[in-house]
Amino acid sequence: MKPSMRSLRLYLSNKAYVVGVPVITLFLMVVISVFIALVMGIVVGLPLPAAAEEGFRNNVGSLTALPGFLISVGALAANRNFAMALAFGSTRRHFWTGTALGFAVTSLVTAAAAVVLLALEKLTHGWFIHAPAFDVAAMGSGNYLKTFGMIFVLSLLSLFLGALFGTVFRAFGTVATTVTAIALGVVLMGLIALGVWQRVRVVAYLADWGLWSVVAMVAALIAAVAAASYSANRLATF
Questions:
Q1: What integer pLDDT is reported at residue 75 of this predicted model?
Q2: DSSP per residue over the chain, as a string?
Q3: Residues 221-236: pLDDT tens digits?
Q4: Fewest beta carbons less than 10 Å away: which of 56, 135, 222, 237?
Q5: How far apart are CA 173 and CA 134, in angstroms?
Q6: d(Cα 188, Cα 108) in Å, to the nearest integer?
Q7: pLDDT at 120
């Protein structure tokens, strides 16, 4: 077996954690959304009237439910599995490659679960009470492919961010980790400032491509963060 595959199997050794929990998190997000809708229904009635349902289409729970946990998964994978992977004969490159493949598996399963939940949501007309959690603007307003794409790139970005922070912490300690976080924040603010400066072109681009433009931008961030994670893993002394 190739060393990279050993690292992949090591990452997937706790499937309940790296695959099961993200899916459960999405399910719990739906439960919370439905509970909020039920509370609203005490006042406006159930199923929710059109105005209330339209408000739910601005729900961003599907975007905010996953990143925190997945960042921790990426950080733990970069730290906890490193020594064991090397003991099994992996090099640093093999370890990073196998773990990156594991991140892709987690992201694919999570995105597929989001599509299944969207299908159930449509089938039940918003969980029987017109309370959409995935059929929302942030996910492409019920488009299965856009929902899959958004959840996939969001999951992958979160995992690679965690791996970057985890690798820097393992190699250089808390100070370097803090500096890395600040540097990423500065870069993000710079990109926002650039977007505001070129807002006419940005708005035109967003209008032309819609949600796919967001997916493309997140994919570009994934490439940058993955490259930084790989560099930290290769260059650091342990």
A1: 93
A2: --HHHHHHHHHGGGHIIIIIHHHHHHHHHHHHHHHHHHHHHHHH-SSPPHHHHHHHTT--HHHHSSHHHHHHHHHHHHHHTHHHHHHTT--HHHHHHHHHHHHHHHHHHHHHHHHHHHHHHHHTTIIIII--SSSSGGGTTT-HHHHHHHHHHHHHHHHHHHHHHHHHHHHH-HHHHHHHHHHHHHHHHHHHHHHHHTHHHHHHHHHHHTHHHHHHHHHHHHHHHHHHHHHHHHH---
A3: 999 999 999 988 887 6
A4: 237
A5: 39
A6: 26
A7: 97
Q: What is the pLDDT of residues 162-198, one digit of tens each?
A: 999 998 988 888 888 889 888 888 887 887 787 677 6
Q: CA-based diameter of the chain, in Å?
A: 62
Buried b (16+ CB within 10 A) or exposed e, 56-93: beebebbeebbbebbbebbbbbbbebbeebbebebebe
State the sign of the Cα–Cα–Cα–Cα dihedral 50, 55, 57, 62.
negative
Q: Token pair of 166, please? A: 């985890």
